[in-house]
Amino acid sequence: MSIVASDPILKVEHLSMKFGGLVAVGDLSFEARRGEITALIGPNGAGKTTVFNCITGFYKPSEGMITLKRRDGTAYLLERLPDFQIPAKAKVARTFQNIRLFSGMTVLENLLVAQHNKLMLASGFTVLGLFGAPAYRRASAESRDLAAHWLEKADLIDRADDPAGDLPYGAQRRLEIARAMCTGPELLCLDEPAAGLNPKESLALNTLLNDIKDNTGTSILLIEHDMSVVMQISDHVVVLEYGRKISDGDPSFVKSDPKVIAAYLGIDDQEVETVLVEVGDEHVIEQFDGTPDPEQGPSPSSSMMAGPVSDTIEHADHSEGLVKVAPGASKADRVKSAESAKAPSAKAKPAAKAKPAVEPAKVPRAPKAKSEAAADAAVAQPAAPKPARSRAKPTDQAPVSLMSAPAVKPKATVKAKPAETPAAKASAKPVAKAAVPAPKPAAAKATVPAKSPAAAKPARPKPAPASAATAAPDDLTLIKGIGPVNARKLGEHGITTFAQIAAWKKADIVAAEAYLEFDGRIAREDWVGQARRFARGAKPAKAGKTGGRG
Ligand SMILES: Nc1ncnc2c1ncn2[C@@H]1O[C@H](COP(=O)(O)OP(=O)(O)OP(=O)(O)O)[C@@H](O)[C@H]1O
């Protein structure tokens, strides 16, 4: 069978994934075309990673079909393929939100390990390799050549013999992609490859991804919050909100689609109704019992399908095919809440309606008060006043696009997101919720003015450290390891002075590592010690400072 370039390599049809009562993905259909870069975007908690996990076999979808068609015409139903066969047979490779390299192994070894299967096959799964069997020697040489090829492409050839853990963050991201490419994938799934990168590193990433697209024919499916990456390199963008697709098209279409702007930036209560009509969304209702289903974690076996979701995903109207989504999620609920708030009884508005402030740098929107926020509000802030709507409002005068609009808080700083594995989930969630303070209202003033100052307030009061309010901010970039990006992220969490960092305890470091997306780096670079020295008045040796990645 002949496959043409524009054929879909991946077809997702009516995909649904539920976790207990939470419908993380509901009735989602889209296609990724062969040889193209398809971006999957959406605000925090929209269900992007869940889609990836279904595609790569980490989750068994509750409903739906995922078809991967290889160049030779062979089609695989990924939801039925055992997960370990997805890379080998369907040729799907992926990277994760959090870097997962073998940090103690060298850069080159990381790429050789990725080709382990090939080498095992060549050794006949025996000790032939040790005796230098010709087939093994050949395979070994090929593996090294392939590794060297991808090290060149990823601009890492000079670091081939360094431990992977010693690489700067951006280089580690590129190494992960190089490692995935060493498996010869036809579909490369990248989960937030630009997260935490500085502009220079983002540029290097764009170059690498374009190179892969142009020269290997590997199709790329990308989850990304960094709109500069998405809009520059994607051929096709699919936008999710609350597990449903709200837009699908080329980047220029998507970035000016009112539904996408509404999802990212928010709109006035009155405008909500208009947009809902436009979106055809006014019948969306919500339901959510907030209890994740532990049995829906990464599956040990992929041949079985999870139970039907018809009990939680329901077609509200069969003619329209709308699905129920999580409570607090839909704009319809916001309309209802706005109406009830106007009523004399003045019912308290659910905290889930709180929308975050926006900031002018990277991506999507701030802490979307979905399930966690609703739970937090119930437990921690029962008497919290109705939060001001904080999404910036597109003006009538100026057309707004995602590129011109102020992007919103990256999720990692605010959201207690379930981790990829149950173990990670168990440890990550409490840390993120308990220790990471809510983000600061960011500079909503950028290009799209907020309606009023109140409109830029965050959903929840931010527990900024007391000293942050009084002390003048220090130049945190003097600390080796803190660049402008990390300084900004720290600022968003109320960390602006050396004294604050100097006073960090273990829990504070864990919390900071969570929102900076580091893995032991703060201790390794001894930020606390450095901050103590600066707080004591040590002279900054700015000229000698290296290593601030962001
Ligand atoms: N294993 C799980 N158990 C319970 N709920 C989960 C699980 N995985 C994801 N969820 C929930 O599903 C929803 C979608 O999460 P998902 O991580 O897919 O969103 P996302 O769009 O990737 O978000 P982000 O951009 O923050 O990474 C969220 O409400 C999340 O809490």
UniProtKB/TrEMBL annotation:
The keyword ATP-binding applies. Keywords: Amino-acid transport, ATP-binding, Nucleotide-binding, Transport. InterPro entries: AAA+_ATPase, ABC_AA/LPS_Transport, ABC_transporter-like_ATP-bd, BCA_ABC_TP_C, P-loop_NTPase. The keyword Transcription does not apply. GO terms for biological process: D-alanine transmembrane transport; L-alanine transport; L-isoleucine import across plasma membrane; L-valine import across plasma membrane. Residues 312-321 have a biased composition (Basic and acidic residues). Residues 10-267 form the ABC transporter domain. GO terms for cellular component: plasma membrane. Residues 287-470 are annotated as: Disordered. Coiled coil: none annotated. Belongs to the ABC transporter superfamily. This is Branched-chain amino acid transport system ATP-binding protein.
